[in-house]
Amino acid sequence: MSRGRGLGRYYETDRPNRDEDSVRTLAITQNITIDGCIEMLDSWFDPETHASEDNSDVLEEIRRQDADADALLLGRQTFEDFRSYWPHQTDDTSGVTAYLNQVEKYVVSSTLTEPGWENSTVLSRDAVAEVRALKDRPGKDIVLTGSIRLTHAVIEAGLVDEYRLFTYPAVQGRGRRLFPDGFRLEQLQLRQSHSFRSGVTLTTYAA
Questions:
Q1: CATH number for the domain including 114?
Q2: Going edge to edge, which strands form the sheet with 104-108?
């Protein structure tokens, strides 16, 4: 399926049908630079820096993805970063705060004992085993974002079903990248490609 949308080009292939007994989709959703960095060391993804830009089309896409997910998977550092910011945004009109408060959040950590955020569960055993067990439970998509060490762990374990990459038109030149050093994938299947008014592009690949 392809269709035009505003200034962007939108391309999407059908996702495979999943029956009730199938394993849930684990989707890695990351903001990323053109040179492949997902660790934000500069301001290319700073919401406050880009507050004046019209990102309504990006938010529309995020809401669409959120509707297909009922679990958010995070490492401890990203979870604590989210927890310290989003629950306190009482005037947020984007819908992000409301979604993050109500979605089931799973934080992988061997040191955190009390999450301190509603609808949050600590997964304290082996990270790969915990994520594999979560995929085996009934439910909708599981989304993993940020959480670079956890991202690398589930990639190397072969647990990832989709990569959803919001690519920003920036070159950072340093910082940790999406894939672990030396990791190889011969070919990914393109499922979606879409450019937004801001110059950000979304590409979705099936692993």
A1: 3.40.430.10
A2: 2-5, 8-12, 189-195, 201-206, 162-168, 26-33, 141-144, 69-75, 104-108, 120-123
Range of the domain at 128: 22-36+55-206
Widest distance between CA atoms in the chain: 48
Q: How far from 183 is each of 86, 177, 178, 180, CA to CA, in Å?
A: 33, 11, 10, 6
> Which strand (E) or helix (H) includes residue 11?
strand 8-12
Query: Is 16's pLDDT higher than 80?
Result: no
For residue 15, is pLDDT > 90?
Answer: no
Residue 117: CB atoms within 10 Å: 17
In a domain, 16, yes or no: no
Alpha helix stretches (DSSP H) within 20-174: 56-67, 76-85, 96-102, 127-136, 148-156
105, 119 contact by CB (below 8 A): yes
Q: Which helix (H) or strand (E) holds 9?
A: strand 8-12
- The Cα 70–Cα 51 span in angstroms is 28
> What pLDDT score was predicted for residue 7?
39
Q: Which residue has the tokens 């401890």?
A: 76
Specify if 43 maps to a domain.
no
Asked if the structure places residue 5 within a domain, the reply is no
Rounded to a whole number of angstroms, the distance between the first and last alpha carbons of the chain is 20
